[in-house]
Amino acid sequence: MKPFADLTRFINPRNVAVVGASAREASQGRRLYDNLVLHSAVPGEVFAVNPAYGEIGGRPCWPSISALPEADIDVALIMINASLVLDALKQCAARGIPFAVVMTSGFSEAGEEGQRLEREIAELCRATGLHVYGPNCPGFVNVRDRLGMTFSPAFKDDLNAGAIGLATQGGGLGRNLLQGLSHGQGVGLWFSAGNEVDLEIPDFIAHMANDPQIRVIALLMEGVKNGRRLTSALELARARNKPVVVLKIGHSEAGVRAAQSHTASVAGSAAVNSAVFRQFGAIEVDDLDQLLATARLLTRITPKSGNGLCIYTFSGGTAALAADIAGGAGLPMAAFAPATKAALRKLLPDFASIDNPVDTTADILRNQQASVECLRILCADPGVGTVLFPIPMDYGAITDGMAQAIATVAAETDTLIVPVWMSRRLGGGFQLLETEGLLPFLALSDAIAVLAKAVPWKTPAVQPAPSSPPAAAAASGGRMLSEAAAKSLLREAGLPVPQGVVVANAEEAAEQAARLGFPVVMKVVSAQIAHKTEAGGVRLNIASAGAAREAHAAILDSVARRCPEAKVDGILVERMLPPGGREVLVGVHRDAAFGLVLTFGLGGIFVETIRDVAHRMIPLSRDDARALVREIEYVEILEGVRGQAPADFDALEDLIVRVSDFAWQHREVLHEMELNPVWVGAAGQGAMPLDALIGYAG
Amino acid sequence: MKPFADLTRFINPRNVAVVGASAREASQGRRLYDNLVLHSAVPGEVFAVNPAYGEIGGRPCWPSISALPEADIDVALIMINASLVLDALKQCAARGIPFAVVMTSGFSEAGEEGQRLEREIAELCRATGLHVYGPNCPGFVNVRDRLGMTFSPAFKDDLNAGAIGLATQGGGLGRNLLQGLSHGQGVGLWFSAGNEVDLEIPDFIAHMANDPQIRVIALLMEGVKNGRRLTSALELARARNKPVVVLKIGHSEAGVRAAQSHTASVAGSAAVNSAVFRQFGAIEVDDLDQLLATARLLTRITPKSGNGLCIYTFSGGTAALAADIAGGAGLPMAAFAPATKAALRKLLPDFASIDNPVDTTADILRNQQASVECLRILCADPGVGTVLFPIPMDYGAITDGMAQAIATVAAETDTLIVPVWMSRRLGGGFQLLETEGLLPFLALSDAIAVLAKAVPWKTPAVQPAPSSPPAAAAASGGRMLSEAAAKSLLREAGLPVPQGVVVANAEEAAEQAARLGFPVVMKVVSAQIAHKTEAGGVRLNIASAGAAREAHAAILDSVARRCPEAKVDGILVERMLPPGGREVLVGVHRDAAFGLVLTFGLGGIFVETIRDVAHRMIPLSRDDARALVREIEYVEILEGVRGQAPADFDALEDLIVRVSDFAWQHREVLHEMELNPVWVGAAGQGAMPLDALIGYAG
Predict the structure, then answer these.
(1) For residues B268 and B243, is the Cβ–Cβ distance under 8 A?
(2) With a cut of 0.85, is the ipTM above it?
């Protein structure tokens, strides 16, 4: 692997040459020259090179690189026709100029001839040790040392340096980030090496990992040229404790197409890219505003930030919404120390919520000092690592004061304060937060998404409780029917149920099994046993009369040992359905707001893991059932994978409508029911509940 | 079900009474009175009621409702101590006042006494037909008719009426929406009925569904009091063709807690709520800014909007990022008509991209007229229903002009133009879009999320291609090893593989099966058959020598029929592993950027449906393997569900490291390998690949 380039002389050159400097006002060659001569602090000389001019703006101009006077030139900036670039680079190499920046377009992004030129440049680099940055790039900006090797007219306004190091491939989106970081902690170095013929993003990462003034590395990548160099550079950044945040364009097919036409580099498969970023500790984000906000937030994170999240606001609805979104993202909410609560209680009105989320109520709006006090109290709590402070409305002077309170406390605490300016009225308060460099978020969910990615939370993130399958809503004091009773109710209601009979002893079991036809399944019948399998109360695949006798004894034995208190009403013997059926769940429960709701989903092991379910209010029409079945995420399991025949959708939909009808008829008393698993055969084979629970209100 | 209330006299009252009107400046009672007297256009009289005053602001004040002069009072606004409210309501009922708005707090949200009071109010409503709005609410605002039955000091600035009808429960967040909709299409009616003792959100939805001036209904709900009334109201809105967009607070546990303490209503289960909204055609959103933007966008949607998405920008990186995010969201990209391309080609420089996404390049920045032309061309294309126009940088006057171009074309086309102002510099261009009522989005992903929800796309949304499992990356011209050859290579490399032997005839099969011990599995060995099961080349669970003989014949027969061209090298007989193992996949493929990458995931049917996989660059350490195994989403399937013992993680991790080592040793030539399924037993039972494919580069 090619070692990382030493960029010291590139970052801080003494003398530079501008090849293609122009006297023509507003030309790119002139802007580049002016950026260096007028707007940069180049310690040494800026040599203009252009055979067309004897002088530019009153300063001398030379006809070629070779013709330049004796001087230690560190970087040659090249903005001439693509066909002339190779020769200029050869002159650079011959003079021992270590770095050349080729801004000119018309290389690999433009077609075969350009690709050939690029290969020759790469060959020249290998042969001579010359380092080339570009081609097809907007240049390099060293904001902190006022050095703009770029033709961008915006460079003269890039005045806000900071601890964020930025590497991009194209130029346009980097400018967006610089505009976003024009207050507070800004961008110190901005690399943007276009086609990356020689110097690549990994070289820049490696430099920034070692640069003591850079604390956070932000990457905007359209393709990965050399994966192993990239991961080595990421490893170096991790070793140096420099967090890396990356936006990788090229996730969807459409995006990949555009990325390839744009930078002509190889867009790796999105899933692999993401896995590699995770593996090497880089934080991947999904949009440009997230890249900006995450980079900025990373410069503000302290060892305390991950202790726990506090939501603090003056509107109850906002508190609820923020807690809701934070809960959904799994952020750990801080538990307040007693001293914190006591102090808040003293300061806030009685009807304020002094628990997390804190809702001061609007009373605090009139008292800026109380805002400051409250924030100080929260920030002093050791369990509070980050305070999320949503401001839902712009109330003019009142919210200006609130913004001032945030700025005041943020400057004195090691707790991370994250303001969210939720109003579209971006008044004085917003402007103050912006110019103070606090980069207020504009939406709660944006803030929370970034906090989830950027903050190293110490408490493991609490996953939100997944919606429980209906059976988990325990029959609160109601009456549960045994499987056998439930099935006979269903049979009366016209639902298909397996052929079966409850037997009283082993001999009867053998007889009935033979009558039903082998194989059979046998299950204990007891209203006290909800989990028959766990009680040893189920035997499958019984293939002979002898086996049925044996199974009868074994079930009674297991149940007696595991559920000694259960009253056994007999053993249910049922014909087994052919193998290869798919298992689904059809359940009904009573929702507090909407009444009886039907749940359909994948059954068996899927119920507790993937929880792939969909719901609909009862009663359902046949069309509802049809839509419901297709609403689950992995409906292809029913449609058939690996050449499997599709399931019997007709029968399944019919069963769902019958369950809905049954539940609707019993709507006054039905508490819950669950058919799980429901066996669904291939088209034409039918659908049948293998187990059934029905619970009535007490 | 209680019928929906007729709100005609409530929305446009002639005479109103303010019970609790106050002479004290800045009191809520005074602000309420002033809002009606000074800032509202009440056609009739505003009667002040307060026993403490003879007059307020020079106008008469009466001691009680009963004492008011003869007049047809439509609405009584009540802002007095909670303990006095019931009596005041009784006076209202006695006088035949049809509506009362109770703003006072201290009811069900405050505890038992308040709950009792609320029950009595509800009883009074039932008995007398009085309609109560509230209690614990900020009032009602009829923006379009300048009527503020509210104590909010902000009401006098609520001047921007429009076709959006808003119903909330608490007041705070509604204010945010009004601030956001203060230009362009605004809020016409804002209901916010707090505890909803009588009038509820469904009443307001039903009114707005029938109100000809309301085109879009926006809901911000913290709880659902009466699900069936809600769904009836949603049905009515759908029948009247009024789109409904809803933000429901209370998705996560934390959110539910805050919502309950705030409005004291029942927060239904989040999954059921979402299912019901979907069932009844309401668009559910996740955050307040989405609610705002979706409501606004819905007022701008035309029958053409869903035809196809066009992305139009002047920066290649932005085009790529936008296409990427839109692709990820499954939005259908428009295909341009030939005339569109021809017209763009004439207008734009050669290096611009005139395909979708359109990248005009920065040249267009200098020419506002060209911007207008370009937009007109795109909007005229019948396949373009929506133009997403991201502006990544604020370039001062240049981007101001671009904003003007958007406003110009937006006013004349039925194509939806959606601007995204991506820069944090919110200069003149942003302000212009804002005041023109175009509500520019501030981030690409926000815009695309809303477009995905709000626009009824005609082309079914194209799902992004899921990342393929390694085997799908076909061995391009390389050499594939047969299963038997692959397994013997793995065995040599120290990997566990099932005991087995390749046999040449049925007799040998029976002998070897007996030697290995029953049950065995038998599989065809042929380099030409990649999918053995589909070819009928696999028999499982062979329990006797006779069955082995039979299976040998059956396999040869099937294979001869289904793959007549395949050369059969024998039949592999293997000892079957005990039942109850879990199936996983361990694969290796070569990524263009990162080289060999190992994929781990759930095997069997899961590979093609759930695609629950994780990746890591090779080589992997033991720690890498440990982390990788736990990175998949449904790791609980390995940890054991339903009382199942955990899988043998040790053996699995060991196997993964060995696969990685094997791949690393063969890294120069290995193209891909796939072990699928890998059988993983319970802890201590080991892990073993049941099938193996190895492909070398050609």
Answers:
(1) no
(2) yes
